[in-house]
Amino acid sequence: MRVASPASRDRTALRLQLADLGWATAAPFIALALRDPALLDPSDFSQDMPAPYRYAFLSISCSLLILWGFRLSDRMGQFFSLRDAVDVCAASACAVASSSVVLFTLTRLEGVPRSTPVIYGLVLSAGLIVIRAATRLHHKDIWRKELETDVADPSVALRRVILIGVDRFASVAIKLTDYQRPRTTQVVAALDARPSFVGRKVGGVSIVGLPQDIGAVLDEYAEHGVEIDEVWLADDKEALPAGSLEDVAAQCDARGRDCLGISEALNLAPRQARPQGPFETPPDRRFDAPDYFGAKRMIDLLVTSLLLVVALPTAMIVACAILIDVGAPIVFWQQRVGRDGERFYVYKFRTFRPPFDRLGRRVPKERRLSRIGRAIRSVRLDEIPQLYNVILGHMSLIGPRPLLPVDQPIDPRRRLSVRPGVTGWAQIKGGTLVSPEEKNALDVWYIRHACMRLDLAIALGTLAVAFTGEKLNRAAVDHATGWYRREFEGARGRVERQESSCLRSPARQKAPTLARGRPI
Q: What is the CB neighbour count within 10 angstroms for residue 469?
């Protein structure tokens, strides 16, 4: 999953390329003309605007809004890719659907053939893709001329490389070295274990043999005065035979050539694993959640599906209010820690303005929360996007609130044994008014005593908090913290006392003496 840009760096502007604007305007008329040229007969304007023209103008309005919403004009045409083509098709489908639904609701599409929206969608998507493909080809010609006129610096010796194993990443690595300025590396040949590939080309580089031929290929290049500096291996081990790696490494070592993976050569190897944090629970030390949490998943899916339908109008109103008050983007994201230490992105409606302004200056915290944002937070409407997290399985409707890694308690294994919740026992018994230790005790108490009746009480309590605000229930907090000390801290103390008594026992004290006196 790609990481979104920070809110203060997210540039959302009313940007539409002139070519997109022109094609979105012409596409509905072209579709109508392809369906039946008589639909565009101008003589029908004598009394009222004909239905085909109403459809065309409505389609133009919807398509411009959709193109801006999908931010297609933010994509640079010279880097047009298959992913961008998929987004173009999705935007075209949304434009066709929106215009068709609106017009069908108003006029039942009278006067417009039913096949026109399909033709319009094909025309719109095809034109937008052709525009971007033409832009890419134009820039490709410019880059090709730059490559032809590029002269390497004679003072810089090119690092020459042979690739072993042909896959998509190897093809991209060849292009990457070709586009480098100033150029320092050149892939001169490739080897692959599939005999049918020998004699063909990848990225303009010839596949000259099999992996076991690496020694002969290196020697032959040396006879022609071309010294090969390194041999790069494909990261996909399936592209290489199981027993060929040792043979390739031995032949390279015998000739003094470095043999390394493409990721390592390009410094793209994964970072070293960090020391295990307190929230990363090893499988052998996890706590088993009560059986009730296994059945909760089906309940979460059913209730969340209903809530999404009911909350959709409210979510749209909240989104519009945030767009006007705070600005885009309207959704706030943060990485939290979920069940078994799994990291995921939790989503909320943004109620705070960005922490930095357009000039990079920090904005004081008291100026970031507006009145509208404070009202949305007070009734918990900013939590609506978390229903999406529940559908994905990252969260539950009711459970311990997901915390940032830095906010985890000393021993978070118990609270991380279940899915975190949109609301929970700690939220209705104090929320932000309780300390982290008290919140952890409330969450662990809930995990141990979870049942349908308790979840219903939490759901009703959440509604009460949304309308009346947070209130500290000191009795519930004291009961949970006392129970937590008796259940866990007391047990830990007994274990420590047993270990201490074992260390002071006579047998443990005599053992070193016996070991020093004679061998055991």
A: 10
Contact (Cβ atoms closer than 8 angstroms) between residue 350 and residue 388: no
Query: What is the rounded distance in angstroms from the CA atom of residue 362 to the CA atom of residue 354?
Result: 9
Query: Distances in Å between the alpha carbon of 279 and those of 275, 302, 491?
Result: 11, 30, 21
Sequential pLDDT tens for the chain (520 residues): 455 555 555 555 566 788 889 999 999 999 999 998 888 887 666 667 888 888 999 999 999 888 887 878 777 777 777 888 888 999 999 999 998 888 888 887 788 888 999 999 999 999 999 998 888 888 776 666 665 555 455 555 788 999 998 888 888 899 888 888 788 899 999 998 888 888 888 888 999 989 889 999 999 988 888 889 999 998 876 667 767 888 888 999 999 998 998 888 888 877 654 444 555 555 445 566 778 888 888 999 999 999 998 999 999 999 999 888 887 778 888 888 888 888 888 999 988 888 877 777 888 887 888 888 888 888 888 899 999 999 999 999 999 988 877 778 887 888 888 999 999 999 899 888 888 888 889 999 999 988 999 999 999 999 888 888 888 899 999 998 999 888 876 655 554 445 444 444 444 444 333 333 333 2
d(CA 136, CA 148): 18
**C-alpha distances in angstroms, 209 versus 163, 166, 191, 258, 266?**
11, 12, 5, 19, 24
What ranges do the domains of the chain cover?
7-148, 159-265, 288-496
Please, is 93 exposed, middle or buried when counting C-beta atoms within 10 Å of its C-beta (0-12, 13-18, 19+)?
middle
CA-to-CA distance for 90 and 474, rounded, in angstroms?
53
Tell me if 209 sits within 8 A of 198, measured CB to CB.
Answer: yes
HSE-up of residue 430 (Cα within 13 Å, Cβ side)? 21
Contact present, 422 and 390 (Cβ < 8 Å): yes
Contact of 230 with 171, CB cutoff 8 Å: no
Q: Residue 118's closest CA among 102, 97, 136?
A: 97
CATH number of 159-265: 3.40.50.720
Question: CA nearest 56: which of 127, 111, 130?
Answer: 111
